Known about the structure:
Helix content is 35%, strand content 18%. It has 395 residues and is α/β, with parallel strands linked by helices. The two termini are 25 Å apart.
Amino acid sequence: MNNREIYQAQTLNIVVYGMGNSFLESEGYLLERVNIIGCSDSDEGRRESDLAKRYPFYSPQELAQIFYDYIFVVSIYDDEIRDRLIQAYEVQPARILTREEWGRLVFVKQGAGIRYPDQYVYVISKPIRVKSGLFSYVFTVADQLRYAEDMQAIPVVDMRSFPNIYLDQDKVGRENAWEYYFEPLSNLSVEEIADCKNILLGYDAPEYKTNYTEKYDIARLHRAYRKWIHMKPEVLEDINRECNEILPCGFEKVLGVLYRGTDMVSLKLKNHPAQPTLDEICELIERYWEEWECEMIYLCTEDAAALEVFKKRFGEKIVYSSQLRFANTANRWLGEIFDEVQGTRRDRGAEYLKTIEILSRCDHMIASVCSGSVCAHVMHGDDYKHLLMIDKGQY
C-alpha cells in the first residue's frame, strides 16, 4: 500500500491477527482509525479470551468465510505469520499488512469543531510505542513534516494524550512532554485539536532501523528539522554550557562515537537494530583515528560499563556528557527503570537530548544504528567530514 494514500477513518474493515499484549497495546490506536470486524489467532484457546468477547473470533481456517479489507498482524512474529497465512490458508498476500505496514497508514477523521474548515490539522504521536525514546519521536516528527508540508496542514505533536517514558503517570492527558524540550510546531495546541474540522492522524512506524539512507532523503529531513524543530531556549542554553565545558576548542577534530548498550544489547528485541560489540567499535576508532586526523573522542553512551572500557582504552582522548548511566538494566527497558533513579522522567529526556545534540555537532562520527545516531545524522546534515554508521541488520 502507498503510505501517501489517506484513508477515511472507520472505512476499512479489518481482522486483527494475534491476540496477545500487542493487540491490547494497539487497540485504542486501531479503533480510532479502522473498523475491527474480528480477531484471529492460531491458538484456539483465544476463542474464550476477553478480546474474543469484544470482537468475533475466527480461526485461520475460517478467514476464507468472511469479507474483510485487510488482516492487520500485530504480533512481533509478523513475517512468519504472513508466510503461514499465505501458504497454509491461501490468504492473498496483498490482504495482509504487518505492523510496519499498517502502522504507516494515514487516516483523516472529522472533528467535532469547526476551526480551520479548509485546512487539515496533522497530529503526530506515538500512541502504541509508549516505550520509545525521545529521538524516536524526533525522527517521526521530522519524517511526517514532509506530509504536513505537502498538504499545507497544521502540524501538532501530541506527547500528552498517551503514556510515554518522559511523562509521569499523573501528567498523562495534562502536559505535553514534547514541550518540555521543544517549541510547539504551530500555534495550535493538543487541547485545541478537538475544535478542528479536518484531522489527519499520522502514523507510528519509523523505518530507520536498517538501510535508512536508502529509505529516506536525509537532506530533506535535515531541512525539516532546521525549519520546524527548535529547542526551548533554556534547554539549548544548558547544552551550550556543557559543550563549552567538555569541548572548549570546538568540534572540528572531534570524533563523535555512539555506543548503544544496556537494554538494546541485553534484550535483543526482534526487529530492532542489531548492535556491534564494544571491541568492534573500538577497533574502528583505532583504524580511522589517524586517517581522519581526529584529536578527541566525544562518547555518547548510556552504558556505565562501556564508558569504563572506553576510558581505559583511549584515556585522555575521551570526553563525555554528564548524563546518568546504567550499570545493569536487568533485562528491562531503560524507560521502565526511570522512576527508580534520581531525578525525574523529564530529566532523563533532557540528558538524552543533550548527548545527541552534542554528538550531532561533531564533524566525524562512528555510530551504531539507533534512533539517536540516525537523528544525529539528520540534525547535522549530510556534510560530515567522515561518517561511518555500523548497520548490522536487525535482531
